[in-house]
Amino acid sequence: MSQNQKAKRISAEGFRKLLSLLRFVLPKKYAFAGGLVALTISSLTTLAFPMLLGDLINLANPAAELERINRIALILLAVFAFNAVFSYLRIYLFEVVTQHMLAGLRQQTYNHLIRLPMSFFSGRRVGELNSRISADIAILQETFTFTLAQFVRQMITIVGGVVLLSIISVKLTLFMLMFVPVVAIGARLFGKKIRGISKNTQDQVATSNIIVEETLQGISNVKAYANERFELERYTTSTNSVIGIALKGARLRALLISLIIFALFATIVGVIWYGVFLVNRGEGLQPGDLFKFILYTVFIGASISGLADLYSQVQKAVGSTESLMALLEEKPEFTTVEESGCEHQLGGELIMEKVSFRYPSRPEVEVLKNVSLSIPAGKRIALVGPSGAGKTTLSALIFRFYDPTEGRILFDGVPSTEIHPACLRRQMAIVPQEVMLFGGSIAENIAYGKPGASMEEIAEAARKANALEFIERFPEGFATVVGERGVQLSGGQRQRIAIARAILRNPRILILDEATSSLDNIAERQVQEALELLMQGRTSIIIAHRLSTVQHADQIVVLEGGQIVETGSHAALLGQNGVYARLAKTLEKT
Ligand SMILES: Nc1ncnc2c1ncn2[C@@H]1O[C@H](COP(=O)(O)OP(=O)(O)OP(=O)(O)O)[C@@H](O)[C@H]1O
Ligand SMILES: [Mg+2]
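ok -> structure tokens follow
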């Protein structure tokens, strides 16, 4: 954001990128052309207004013919009617073009974003990304509906206005051109400075708002630590400092605004003064002409000062385009989201060969070191180890969220890099450590494992996941809305929804990242039973924190500090009296 607002000169490259957005206009090019025509006509009719009005005023004398007076008044009315029709067309047509353009841009951005690899997302705050994209798109919307039209209109007003003025009086025009543009531009520059000042205040207000936001989001923490007083003081200090900054700005702003007002009026008085002087000298100028002159001067002055504003708008638009383009230039992990006929049917055998891994966002830490594993199809291995050992990371590599920094992963002997990530993932399922449910019904959340699943399939999956009982206790059953605006489910319930989802998916390879929080005995037994059913006949990797889950595994792998330190069966490892034996003792207690 701050990057966009920084005043920098518009580079040719940046401007070219902005113009390249016009390709999104192509589908509506006739509407766009129509809008430009309507815009030109409505601007020209606006220019006719001072001319006709001045002519009418010139007739304000007893000698004038009534017929001429009536005619000019009627023409004026007609001009305004004309103007109204074309203004309507212009506004509507530009909106048509812009809305289509934005929808295209939004769709392309989202289409691209959703295909970016995990490494892109792990280095960024998603909320920030989201708000940046919507802010950028809003700026572009303003640029294309408003700024572009304003620019064309102001150019027409300035050029047309000066031409018409020279017809009335060349001397007066030259006099006007000496002052008006200078004052208009000066006023705009001052205006910009004023906005800069008020931005400081806004920033400070934003800082205070962050305090409110943070404390309200974590209100249970604030209360649990009885830190209301601390937070109140923090907020008071922050809001009080707004006063100081705002008042300092107010003094400067008051001074600048009064100077601008004075300068503007002084210029207008100057032009009128010189005009009256010319009228009195009898240089063929009539009072009505002077009136035209003043109106055109005001139009031109406003247009010139508006141009400076447009420049800063275009600057912002270039910034937004550049950051959107930067996003669009990020390399997606695969090129198509379509069901590109899965070429590799997984048998279930999984081998890791000397796999080492560092997260792209933290390349200095080696999270996995030289990990070698071999899991025959349909077997079950348990992965245990202290917190931070790299268990979740290992599962992320199997899912190809990331590729190993060194070594390789083979599925049925085929290197993972040769299998399309979507193809791979479609044949696997994960029951993650933290189950995230989407805002929607329970049925929809389960069906996420197999989009388009029938209600019978969903209910059957829920039954197998031991979830049917609690779902049916809700008055609305499967239609119960969960998530932020609905029912909050307990940890064990959420897990069983995730298990149902995985059952629906019917994967060849299954990964269970057991939740660290311990469930009560009944909930644990229910989850356990559901898991047993789910694991049957599939290659399963269980990241376990409970001894009950570990014991029945075909093989236990102990990970510590990113390395495999022990492997073997439960009995064998206990016999070794090593890390696992120690771990088993602590697991037993939970
Ligand atoms: N996205 C990430 N970017 C950078 N480092 C990460 C990322 N995710 C995890 N790590 C780091 O990798 C290491 C292993 O984390 P991981 O989540 O794999 O541990 P874990 O064995 O699953 O632990 P737990 O039992 O607590 O779930 C930790 O040091 C962690 O800080
Ligand atoms: Mg973990």
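The CA atoms of residues 292 and 359 lie 70 Å apart.
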